[in-house]
Every structure is written in C-alpha cells, then in structure tokens.
Give the backbone structure.
Amino acid sequence: MAEKEKLRVELCMGSSCFARGNSGTLMSLEEFSEQNGLSDRIELEGHLCLGKCNSGPHMRIGDKEYSGITDPDAVIDLIKKALEE
Ligand code: FES
C-alpha cells in the first residue's frame, strides 16, 4: 500500500507573526500531532518573515494560505479538514 503523502503545515516564525499567535499555534499543533499519533501525517515547518506582517499571523496548510488566524483550535480544524481531503 502506498504511503499517504504528508500534509505540510508551514508557519511564519518571523517576530511579528510569532507574537501575533503563531507561537501558541505551533505549541498546540505539536501537541495535537503527538496526541493523535499524526507525526507521520503532518510535517510542521517554520519559515522566515514573508514581508506581510500587517495581515499576520501567516500560515500555509497544504497548498492553501491563511492569514489572521490567531485561534489554535481554528487552525487544528483546518488541518483536520485538510487531512480528510
Ligand atoms: S513576521 Fe510573518 S510576515 Fe512578517
């Protein structure tokens, strides 16, 4: 059986996005992934400032970009949906 492709989740770790919520989101995502045994399904990655700090925090889930989501639970919901696709 072919292994399912990992879902790539990228969070902007520039200081603005980090302070605007991505620090908490990163911790929640690591916990979510660990508790649900999803570390082989989700690939978490940080990246540097995208130069769009005003509309942050920025993240990318799979091939979709999101901005302004500060609630980690909302991010987890998006990830759950993306994993089902
Ligand atoms: S810190 Fe994320 S866009 Fe600048």
Remarks:
- Residues 52 and 77 are 24 Å apart (CA to CA).
- Residues 12, 14-17, 49-53, 56, 58 surround FE2/S2 (inorganic) cluster (CB under 6 Å).
- The chain has one domain: 7-84.
